[in-house]
Design goal:
Largest sheet: 6 strands, parallel
Distance between the termini: 35 Å
Radius of gyration: 26 Å
Order of helices and strands: EHEEEHEHEHHEHHEHHEEHHHHEHHEEHH
Strand order of the largest sheet: 5-2-1-6-7-8
Number of strands: 13
Strand content: 15-25%
Helix content: 25-40%
Shape: elongated
Length: 405
Amino acid sequence: MALKHMLDGYKVLDFTQIVAGPTVTKLMAEMGAEIIKVELAPNGDHCRNFPHVQDQRSAYFVQQNRGKMSLCMDLKKSAGQAIVRELIPLVDVLVQNYAPGVIGRMGFDYENVRRLNPKIIMCSVSTFGQTGPLAPEPGYDFIGQAYAGVTSLSGEEGGAFYPPALAIGDVSTGVHAYAAVATALLHRERTGEGQHLDISLLDSYFHYHDMAVELVSASHGAAKLKRMGGQIGPLCPAGMFQTATGYLWIFAFQDNHWAKLCELMGRPELTRDPACIDNDRRVANRAEINRAIDNWLARLPDRDAAVTALREARIPHAPVLTVEEAMQHPHLLERRTVRSVHDRILGDFQVPGFPLRFSAFPETLELEAPFLGEHNRRILSSYLGYSDEEIERLERERVLCSAPY
């Protein structure tokens, strides 16, 4: 039988909420895995209340949870815990992003889970990890970013810090976690062994340092990192520049690109100037070089004219687009980087598209986000063989909950 996608047939028990954890299972759902999203009664995933909300339906929840089945239960009750214990032997992966210790207090730490299913891959996602002095602390994306030394590099020198206003750490931690899950599944295919994965947002953020850590360490502290706002400290010219109608990035620090930029600006003599002859000397004379670029851009009618000139010269650059402009860009639309989806309540709207491309599965799956507890009956009957009478009893006892949103 033909596979619908890469992970067709794999089953996942999903104890995740908000961003980082749901990113792991969202990627798996997009590749055909069966995701049983366990939501805590009575309200389910906290992000069911995140804007935009219409008729109690959250567009944010839909974006993060398309392709998942919702099983909403009261896990403080023994009957709810019993259902989880019955499901664990039937799944390949368990993903959770509660604070360290919470899943254990429910009775589902890795040791207990492994007893029920020795081959399971259990992935725990948290801000600080399952071990270490900070492990018990509550945290979010920007908290991990601050501890990683990332926030300290943002903004102008001597001014306020300006961390990016989007969930870079949460989403990238989810992607790191998915990479670990996929690799652990490959290991299991080879050895039959399951394992526990400890994925930390702080670890993921610190992993993003491309130059700072080695620079400080290898120089034995001689190198001092400075915040430079819209400029890239060790490279020149490399930074953000203003035009009459908006900003753009220019990266012409390589000698061949610098020479092309000098021609564009009508300043070919700068390529022979000893003060500009290589990147190190250009960094030392950044103010003069940036002034030359600003003067050139001031002579152009708008940002589009600068983009056209830079593109024709094949100098790396990018206009600083608003979210609205990015959503309308033909490249992002053609590649479905921004994608339109349909929801039963919200109708059609755009979300970030599936970022992975597989030649064997060129088409994305049409998926739908669940209502709260929508699949209670389906999961208990088809996975566990519960009768209608048993399910109705659990509903009366409020072990199972549901709502039409």
